[in-house]
Specification:
Number of helices: 13
InterPro entries: Glutathione_S-Trfase_N (IPR004045), Thioredoxin-like_sf (IPR036249)
Number of strands: 4
Largest sheet: 4 strands, mixed
Bound molecules: glutathione, 2-acetamido-2-deoxy-beta-D-glucopyranose
Distance between the termini: 30 Å
Strand order of the largest sheet: 2-1-3-4
CATH topology of the domain at 3-87: Glutaredoxin
Protein name: GST N-terminal domain-containing protein
Helix content: 55-70%
CATH superfamily of the domain at 3-87: Glutaredoxin
CATH architecture of the domain at 3-87: 3-Layer(aba) Sandwich
CATH class of the domain at 3-87: Alpha Beta
Keywords: Signal
Order of helices and strands: EHEHEEHHHHHHHHHHH
Radius of gyration: 19 Å
Strand content: 5-15%
Length: about 270
């Protein structure tokens, strides 16, 4: 059955679905990839909100149905796949918990220096382009039915943008710095305590080949490595160690090596870690 998968090259959660497609034996043409440019806020177009009212990636259309979360998208890809793999577990929910959110891990800033760097970099550009897209798209014909969505997003994204551009009240900024520090600590504890609790000593959670859990954990870990400045498979363990002040646990290091040796991983991250 034909499938359309909506992705974006910089998206951590879309990479879960991309790893799954690459691993699961789908043939050329079984899955049509469509890019939704998150940097330009294309996910906020009413035409996309009709497919996924949350406006998030990945999104999968299959069997006349829309799958609108990473977990559902990946489960549908696993279910219909030519290659059968180990079904997912509660690990999927764990890695998707808000306290380990890999997108906030990228945006966070723990002090003024980090905030200035984020503001001048991709994060600042991302927030301002999104706000412009929200303003424009919410005024277009057909946008009325999504008014509540647009209002919420404008508030959330606008709040972040104000902090990054130095226009927010001091207490908002300080709240953000504190929330950033807490998030950084949570992500660190995921790498040092939570992952070692479920990762094998060698191979994948799914065994010899990646299973459903592995698609989620592999993409999450790759994003976290990217947030510490890693640029390739080879420099990631050093980058993580430097950021967190301790060598990553043996299982995490082994798992990183196992994933990054896979052709699927090399394909999905050919243009860099994200
Ligand atoms: N809980 C959702 C989160 C998905 C998500 O946040 N995706 C990001 C890309 S990695 C996105 O589409 N962000 C766009 C936005 O929030 O505007 C899921 O697991 O599907
Ligand atoms: C939108 O996101 C919320 C919160 O994560 C979730 O409860 C809801 O099911 C999502 N809706 C769709 C259509 O995916």
């Amino acid at each position: 059955m034909p499938k359309t998968l909506y992705i974006f090259a910089g998206s951590v959660w879309a990479a879960v679905a991309e790893l799954a497609v690459a691993e699961l034996g789908y043939k050329e043409g079984d899955v049509t990839f469509k890019t939704v440019n998150l940097m330009e806020g294309e996910n906020f177009a009413a035409s996309f909100l009709k497919i996924n009212p949350n406006g998030t990636l990945p999104t999968l259309e299959s069997d006349g149905k829309s799958h609108t979360s990473t977990a559902e998208v990946t489960a549908a890809l696993v279910k219909d796949a030519p290659i059968k793999v180990k079904a997912g577990s509660s690990i999927i929910q764990t890695i998707h918990e808000d306290k380990y959110d890999p997108n906030f891990a990228m945006l966070l800033a723990r002090n003024d220096e980090e905030l200035n760097a984020k503001s001048a970099g991709l994060a600042g550009m991302f927030l301002s382009k999104r706000q412009a897209a929200l303003e424009k798209l919410s005024a277009e014909p057909g946008a009325e039915e999504f008014k509540a969505f647009y209002d919420t997003k404008k508030g959330q994204n606008g709040g972040m943008l104000a902090i990054v551009t130095g226009k927010a009240p001091a207490e908002h900024k300080n709240g953000f710095l504190a929330q950033s520090q807490a998030h950084f600590d949570n992500v660190k504890s995921a790498v040092f305590t939570v992952l070692p609790g479920f990762l094998p000593d060698s191979g994948f959670i799914g065994g010899e080949i990646p299973g459903e859990d592995d698609f989620h954990v592999g993409a999450w870990l790759t994003r976290i490595a990217a947030t510490t400045g890693a640029k390739s498979a080879d420099d990631a363990l050093a980058a993580l160690e430097k950021a967190y002040g301790a060598p990553v646990p043996a299982q995490v290091a082994a798992y990183w090596g196992t994933w990054t040796a896979r052709p699927s991983w090399k394909k999905v991250y050919a243009d860099g870690l994200h």
